[in-house]
Amino acid sequence: MRVPLIAGNWKMNTTVSEAVALVRAMRDGLGEIGGVEKVLCPPFVSLAAVAEIVKGSSVKLGAQNLFYEERGAYTGEISPPMLAELCEFVIIGHSERRNYFNENGEIVNNKVIAALKAGLKPILCIGEKLEENEAGKTEEVITGQMESSLAGIAELDGLVIAYEPVWAIGTGRAATGKQSNETISVIRRNIFRLYEAKIAQDMRILYGGSVTAANATEFMQQPEIDGALVGGASLKADEFLDIVKQTSAIKGLPRT
User: Fold this and answer.
1) Is 70 in the active site?
2) Is 83:118 a contact under the CB 8 Å cutoff?
3) Among 55, 79, 241, 244, which one is least packed by beta carbons within 10 Å?
4) Residue 139: inside a domain, yes or no?
5) Residue 164 known to be catalytic
6) What's 30's domain CATH number?
7) Would you say residue 256 lies in a domain?
8) In terms of pTM, does the model score above 0.90?
């Protein structure tokens, strides 16, 4: 069975002191919730501080991005080996990176390859824009993004996919559970086509896009959805805890 995963993407929010306060407010509560993998993705500057606070707990850390070279004259960038000492997961290909920083399929592919080489678990984001959705091109866009992002990659060790319809991110306009489940079914079929049945069956695929405590149950009740990549709601300790609790109640696996 697939272990559900809830990841909080804090984006460009919280100073180091604010990040410390936020994780302290939710650490113990998250530790009490079983059957769900819990990942926090603070800004780079807070990773080390947050890592100290969650050390020894069931809470795991992720970064929000990386560069695909291991070292060199790339001012301002963060390499996979740098992250590998601090966290386990890394978000790659988020729509904000694609839109604001012109990351295309080749760049995303290079980042996924570099992350896997460093032993990191990528959370690969894919999703269509509003005009693509309205034109009925969701499947075409999703398929193209998957093919370019995973090109030349034979092993998907630990990789997670997050379906995030661009039109639902930060807009308060979430897709419905049924819509998301149907699109995630397409993603899983593509994994089967590109790899094999077992990899497709074992692949964890999350929904991301205006997930809140008010709508989390709708998404978690869908059979193809294995968790969520949570944005704004992950900056509120009580709400994030509520989302994780709902996920545990619906999809959580027994503690081993």
Assistant:
1) no
2) yes
3) 55
4) yes
5) yes
6) 3.20.20.70
7) no
8) yes
